[in-house]
Design a protein that fits this description.
227 residues; mainly alpha; Serine Threonine Protein Phosphatase 5, Tetratricopeptide repeat; 2 domains; 11 helices
């Protein structure tokens, strides 16, 4: 029954988005409103969770029930303002489901979908800052973070007008990840770009360390070449 329901939601959402693109009435209006009501109820439940970690875990458990609907909207590949799509995108990023979040972000940015009115940041800012924050938090905790996720976020948002602190934070995170894998040249490049955007972004010491490590690496390479 769950499989049949999920398939029904996906197909109906796809048909609806295609119809809506031509100015027709949304065929899934009642389903959308039901999903929206469920989303609002879940948001209310989440608002009572004080711990960021616990809230992220709760979002990860809630996301799957909205995916059939979201996947239907994405499959239609038409612009349709939909609070469910953009909210689930953000939830995915909050819950560490970055591949799925970026998949939805590609659609949202390509079609110019706005975040719900309750959000002060626009969609590209959400994508850039949430992923940068996640990476910086992982690094601070001594954990690893997938560099490709950060580079995808950069590529997706590079043509948008972001506030300098957000862009700086993304560059800073990318630079620090490069530094963590001892790739000093791009680490220095990105951290310099970050500082140029926001002087106190938080990577000056890392930049200094990267420059010293690069100089040492070059000296060792020259010594090895001449021996």
């Amino acid at each position: 029954m769950n499989h049949a329901r999920n398939h029904y939601l996906r197909v109906l959402a796809e048909k609806s988005a295609k119809a809506d693109a031509f100015g027709a009435t949304r065929q899934d209006a009642s389903v959308y409103l039901l999903q929206l009501a469920e989303l609002k109820n879940d948001k209310s439940l989440l608002s009572h969770i004080k711990s960021d970690e616990s809230r992220a875990e709760a979002k990860a458990k809630l996301i799957p029930k909205y995916l059939p609907y979201v996947e239907g909207i994405l499959a239609a590949n038409q612009k349709v303002e939909d609070e469910i799509v953009t909210t689930i995108m953000l939830w995915c990023l909050d819950a560490g489901m970055f591949d799925l979040g970026l998949k939805i972000a590609v659609f949202a940015l390509a079609h110019g979908l706005d975040m719900p009115d309750s959000f002060s940041r626009d969609t590209p800012s959400i994508v850039a800052e949430e992923i940068a924050n996640a990476a910086l938090s992982k690094l601070k905790a001594g954990d690893v973070f997938d560099l490709n996720i950060l580079l995808q976020a950069e590529q997706l948002t590079e043509s948008y007008d972001l506030h300098d602190p957000i862009r700086a934070k993304l560059y800073c995170a990318i630079g620090k990840i490069f530094l963590s894998v001892e790739n000093y040249v791009p680490a220095i490049e990105y951290m310099k770009k970050a500082i140029a955007k926001k002087d106190n972004v938080g990577c000056k010491q890392d930049l200094d360390r990267a420059e010293k490590l690069l100089a040492k690496q070059l000296e060792e390479q020259q010594a090895a070449a001449s021996s």
